[in-house]
Design goal:
heterodimer, A: alpha+beta, Jelly Rolls, 13-stranded antiparallel β-sheet, 9 helices, 17 strands, B: alpha/beta, Rossmann fold, 2 domains, six-stranded mixed β-sheet, 11 helices, 27% strand
């Protein structure tokens, strides 16, 4: 009797039920639970909140006895180089003015120090407008961080041609001594400066030719000596006794040079000065004693220091990502979800994409708020914050948000693997946060281990926050604490993405194999 | 597309428990097929296998001739309600339907249609967590009906319904079957399927014990039986038993008699001057038919072991 009834013809026509519909469904799920929305709002609140809290706790300043015996204090400061980065421009300079084209030649017979450093420097330099510091008179540095080119003998890196703080080319190798002196020459022609070196003063080798954009017609030309502090000493303190002394002879200047040599201690914190610095004329030339460095300043704050709230936001994002899956397992809702769509891999992909995009937008808001507030707080507490180009700013801010988003996607995969909220959240935190804290904050950990952790663990992605390159010619504390990572930004981010891809692959495999 | 659900030779083990042991049956369009059996008979597992959620070790499950997992628009083929509690409690009932609709490319307009059909309009904006079990059942039916599927599969949909809800559910399922849909409804209480199911698949221990039209089952269970209503139960029992009938007391003043015809019963009662108020052909309830079937199964198992 029943068999005579014709099968039902649906009135509602089947619509598209593709991946776009799956994404739409998962987005609807996410936005219709108040807990998820609160969680998403917490991501920027925690990121910016902790970020500004940490930024406000960082102080930088100096203090020294002033002329009338009172203590004078002030914020830390650092000049900005021609490339826009903060630099150290501190050295002892024996100089005279050179109008127009010309050259300087000198022979260096020794470079000594009470505490020798590989990047101690003595040599010749042509520098755009350097101020003079008369005895007792106020310091006037018209152009701190101005353009320059120099030929330098170094502590243990041979002869170098360096320019504009970041440029570096190797010349003659080997240490300098009376038995093995180094001849150095700089030739200025318009905006270009060419450096030469020689072991005997008659056979010259060109080390490099550099173009110094907008170099002024009249430059200061002369001799310099300087020495950076040992790596573990951090900032250069006022009145530091570490000095390097270079011995020069056969000093010659060609061109329209302006008369007598004068000595200037350039840069460094203001104060009574460094007693040991200065220069002396010898029978055949000069000895010049100085300290500091003429190099990019890799020890200052960066915009990444305003994004330490990342970890607070990250943990919220992990909870959202994991629970977005495990809550469905807990309620049995996962069966409804799977029965409504073709392909379990696509379901998980849709979940991961929706969580990824939502947490990215939330985290981006947090980072965009955190950076300017953090920068303001850092500066108002006396810190120097390295300015970065717009593209680097964008990379750091969007990159940090992307790290949070991609880790939320990792948590989605873990949610599908573990099917329990506690297990998924815990393991995501363990795999992401613990290696980073070990690498950054554990003093007992050997450098090679922390370096390795930051190459292979998901925390490699923090390289996306590095704003200052690691300069081979600059002695600095290049650890993760200083914002330096072993991998380049995109490679570090790719390591995290590889982890997420592997976790999603495993999750999809398990999801396909297991009964729902 | 033929709107038929077919399972054949399903076998599945959960650890040491054999959940499905050759489950085989077909759900035809245009009728309500009741899927009954005690808890643990394999009803829910069978439904999960049909929906491609659980994988059987052996056997096949096809909907409209195809495995569920190959369907491009699954909810347009089979609507299902496996667990009325499968909800995010903090999401409103309407939003629960909305995400499901979005997954099928359907709009909020269709959501409102099924909400009206399920009689949930007034409560639809409330959080699903605050719903009673009966309301969750209605919400589950609405979800199953979203894409207007020709096949419907509901696991224990009568659970938690109030009497009015049970009447509504029966009528709704009958009308859906009347439109030509194939409907599979599981229950562990036969009485719920009374007047609803056209066909019955009785499951026990992971396989089908009986698979028959409800009319046939009731006829078989009622066969040759007579209901006798009398105040003299003891005398009637003794007399009729001596006359070759099998007599069972089924109420304070009711006897169920088999082995002799109604005419002979009346003649014997009259001849022995035993008073009676009614002699009628017995019509078994679905519950009795079910008990009959499962008792046979129990006997069979006892004999076999």
């Amino acid at each position: 009797m029943a068999a005579t009834i014709a099968p039902y013809r649906p009135r509602v026509q089947p619509r598209r039920a593709g991946f776009a519909q799956l994404l739409h469904a998962e987005w609807t799920k996410l936005r219709t639970v108040r807990g998820w929305i609160i969680g998403l709002l917490l991501v920027p609140v925690m990121t910016a909140g902790f970020g500004t809290l940490i930024s406000s706790g960082s102080e930088c300043g100096y203090m020294y006895p002033g002329a009338n015996g009172q203590l004078v204090s002030g914020p830390c400061s650092a000049p900005v180089g021609p490339g826009g980065e903060v630099v150290q421009d501190q050295f002892y300079f024996v100089h005279q003015a050179l109008a127009g084209n010309g050259s300087i030649t000198a022979r260096v017979t020794s470079l000594t120090s009470s505490n020798p450093q590989p990047w101690a420097k003595a040599g010749i330099i042509v520098k755009a407008a350097a101020g003079a510091r008369g005895d007792g008179s106020p310091r006037s540095e018209a152009v701190p961080g101005s353009a320059y080119a120099a030929m330098l003998v170094t502590g243990s890196h041979g002869v170098r041609m360096q320019w504009n703080f970041t440029g570096d080319t190797a010349g003659l190798p080997g240490d300098v001594s009376a038995a093995s002196p180094r001849w150095l020459r700089l030739v200025r022609s318009g905006d270009t400066v060419t450096g030469y070196d020689s072991a005997d003063g008659s056979h010259w080798t060109r080390v490099g030719t550099v173009s110094l954009a907008g170099f002024p017609a009249t430059a200061q030309i002369g001799l310099l000596a300087t020495i950076p502090p040992p790596r573990d000493q951090g900032h250069i303190a006022a009145g530091q006794e570490l000095t390097a002394t270079g011995t020069f002879d056969h000093v010659g200047v060609a061109g329209a040079a302006g008369g007598s040599w004068q000595g200037t201690g350039l840069g460094g914190p203001p104060g009574p000065g460094k007693n040991a610095d200065g220069f002396q004329r010898t029978a055949t030339g000069f000895t010049v004693t100085g300290n500091g460095d003429i190099a990019p300043d890799v020890g200052e704050k960066t915009i990444s220091d305003t994004l330490d709230g990342l970890f607070a936001g990250l943990i919220v994002a992990i909870v959202i990502g994991a629970m977005f899956v495990t809550a469905e397992y807990r309620r049995g809702l996962i069966r409804v979800t799977l029965a409504a769509s073709q392909g379990r891999g696509r379901v998980l992909a849709a979940k991961a994409i929706v969580v990824g995009l939502a947490t990215f937008v939330a985290a981006l808001a947090g980072c965009v708020i955190s950076v300017p507030i953090g920068e303001h707080l850092l500066r108002s507490h006396g810190n120097v914050v390295d300015p970065v180009p717009a593209l680097t700013w964008l990379r750091v801010v969007a990159g940090t948000a992307a790290v949070i988003a991609v880790i939320a996607m990792l948590a989605v995969a873990f949610g599908a693997i573990f099917r329990r909220g506690a297990g998924a959240v815990t393991s995501a935190i363990v795999i992401v946060v613990v290696p980073w804290f070990l690498a950054v904050s554990s003093p007992a950990l050997p450098v090679t281990v922390s370096d390795w952790l930051l190459r292979v663990s998901p925390s490699a992605a923090l390289a996306i926050q590095q704003t200052i390159p690691q300069y081979p010619q600059v002695a600095g504390d290049y650890g993760p604490n200083g914002g330096f990572y072993p991998l380049v930004p995109l490679a570090g981010f790719a390591v995290l993405c590889a982890w997420v891809a592997a976790a999603l692959w495993l999750a999809v495999r398990l999801l396909r194999r297991r009964d729902a | 597309m033929e709107a038929t659900i077919e399972v054949a030779g399903l076998r599945k083990r959960f650890g040491s428990t054999l959940a499905l042991d050759g489950m085989t049956f077909t759900v035809a369009p245009g009728q309500v097929t009741g899927f009954v059996g005690p808890n643990g008979a394999g009803k829910s597992t069978t439904m999960r296998v049909i929906l491609g959620l659980d994988a059987p070790e052996e056997g096949t499950a096809l909907v409209g001739g195809r495995p569920y997992r190959t369907l491009k628009h699954p909810l347009s083929h089979v609507g299902s309600l496996l667990d009325a509690a499968a909800l995010q409690p903090s999401r409103s009932a309407r939003n629960h339907l909305l995400w499901l609709a979005h997954s099928q490319g359907l709009t909020a307009k269709r959501v409102d249609e099924v909400v009206d059909q399920a009689g949930l309009r007034s409560a639809i904006r409330r959080k699903a967590g605050g719903y009673s079990l009966g309301m969750r059942q209605r919400l589950g039916i609405a979800a199953a009906m979203l894409a207007d599927p020709p096949m419907l599969m509901l696991d224990e949909p009568f659970n938690g319904l109030d009497p009015e809800g049970i009447v509504w559910m029966r009528g709704y399922l009958r009308s859906l079957a009347g439109q030509g849909r194939a409907i599979l409804v599981s229950s562990h209480l036969m009485s719920e399927l009374q007047d609803t199911a056209d066909h019955l698949v009785v499951a026990g221990h992971g396989k089908v014990i009986a698979d028959a039209a409800v009319a046939d089952l009731i006829a078989a269970a009622s066969a040759d039986r007579i209901t006798l209503r009398t105040i003299a139960r003891t005398e009637a029992t003794t007399m009729l038993a001596h006359s070759g009938a099998t007599v069972a007391a089924t109420g304070p003043d009711v006897l169920t008699i088999s082995g002799i015809s109604a005419e002979r019963t009346v003649a014997l009662l009259t001849a022995n001057a035993i008073p009676f108020s009614e002699v009628s052909a017995h019509r078994a309830s679905l519950e009795e038919a079910y008990m009959e079937l499962t008792r046979d199964a129990v006997d069979f198992r006892a004999a076999a072991s």
